[in-house]
């Protein structure tokens, strides 16, 4: 076990020197997370808008379901994706298990309900303001959804940032489907868990600091977007 002071010193040295292993792990983490959030937004934003604007039997059940799925246990998602992608599973022929693609799938499953639930609430509130105007102008349903998505774009970017924060900090699901293989599927959270268990705290601390910096950046970006949206609303 390393001395804590020495571990912090080595961690800052790794960060300052842009250690190759550190850069590789951070780069893979960001690629996987951005891909998962992109997939989640491509699926979740239209579905959230559809749930916000349309009225049909069973809608409230879907709203409750997606709100509940926001708290999906990551290890359960990892297990289900593992079963789907394993050799005995229905998608085993794709041979995606223990690859970054499997990690993207797991993260996307975790993030998509968050995107759907939050975007549904944002667009539903906005639709309550515009619904009478849409009806008076006989705006077609698809155009109304597109208009709501565009008008709520700043807030929806904040929703996407919330999904990004959820995905980048994920460890349970990605370690099950990715396997934490060095130079293949080792991301920040799984590397932190591994290095801590080995007692090698320097790399774990360096990666933890990067995660904190990313979390800070996401929160700053969210606040800036909220401020921009408020200014445009009162302009």
From TrEMBL:
It is a multi-pass membrane protein. Residues 26-222 form the ABC transmembrane type-1 domain. It holds the Pfam family BPD_transp_1. Keywords: Membrane, Transmembrane, Transmembrane helix, Transport. It is found in: Cell membrane. It comes from the Bacteria. The chain crosses the membrane at residues 30-54, 61-85, 97-118, 154-181, 201-222. Its main location: membrane. Belongs to the binding-protein-dependent transport system permease family. This is ABC transporter permease.
């Amino acid at each position: 076990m390393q001395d804590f002071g020495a571990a912090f010193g080595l961690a800052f040295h790794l960060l300052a020197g842009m250690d190759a292993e550190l850069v590789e792990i951070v780069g893979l983490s960001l690629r996987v997370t951005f891909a998962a959030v992109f997939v989640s937004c491509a699926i979740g934003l239209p579905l959230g808008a559809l749930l916000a604007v349309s009225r049909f039997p069973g809608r409230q059940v879907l709203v409750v379901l997606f709100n509940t799925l926001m708290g999906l246990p990551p290890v359960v998602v990892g297990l289900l994706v593992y079963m789907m992608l394993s050799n005995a599973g229905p998608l085993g022929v794709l041979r995606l298990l223990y690859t970054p693609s499997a990690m993207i799938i797991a993260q996307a499953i975790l993030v998509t309900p968050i995107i759907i639930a939050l975007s549904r609430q944002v667009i539903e509130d906005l639709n309550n303001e515009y619904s009478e105007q849409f009806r008076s102008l006989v705006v077609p349903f698809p155009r109304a959804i597109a208009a709501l998505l565009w008008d709520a774009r700043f807030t929806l970017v904040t929703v996407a940032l919330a999904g990004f924060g959820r995905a980048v900090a994920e460890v349970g699901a990605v370690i099950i489907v990715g396997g934490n293989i060095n130079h293949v599927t080792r991301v920040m959270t799984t590397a932190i868990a591994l290095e801590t268990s080995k007692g090698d705290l320097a790399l774990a601390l360096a990666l933890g600091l990067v995660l904190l910096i990313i979390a800070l950046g996401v929160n700053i970006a969210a606040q800036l977007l909220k401020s921009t949206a408020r200014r445009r609303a009162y302009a």
